[in-house]
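Page 47, continued from p. 46.
Same chain as before, 138 aa.
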Amino acid sequence: MTHTHPIRSRSPAEWAGDRGSASIQMAALMPVLFLIMFTGLQAALYSYASTVAATAAQDGARAAAAYTGTGTGNLAAGTTTANSALQQSHGSLTGYTVTATGTAGGATVTVSGQALSVIPGLTFTVSRSATWPWERLS
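Result:
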């Protein structure tokens, strides 16, 4: 023998005790949701700025190591190339600096700057370097 239980609906008097509970739950959850959202957005902005800095450093190192007939590259060309790449990134890396140095192994270009921030007052510094061997005629 199977017993069936009818679905019992709540009376308006029973619902009265729940009035406003959804608003309280939402008010408690909203800061957590915003924290998760802004953390994800900040991580994406930092990652993009890091990629832009690495790409600019690679382009600059490649240009700096180019053969010029003197046996070394042109460090000024590397700096100019990296700055040009950063200008084309439309502000994804702000307050940036570009330095180019040469060693026996090749040209190194370092790009440093700040990633955009969705949290006022916080700065996230990005620094990426790339080294390219000197080009030589064989």
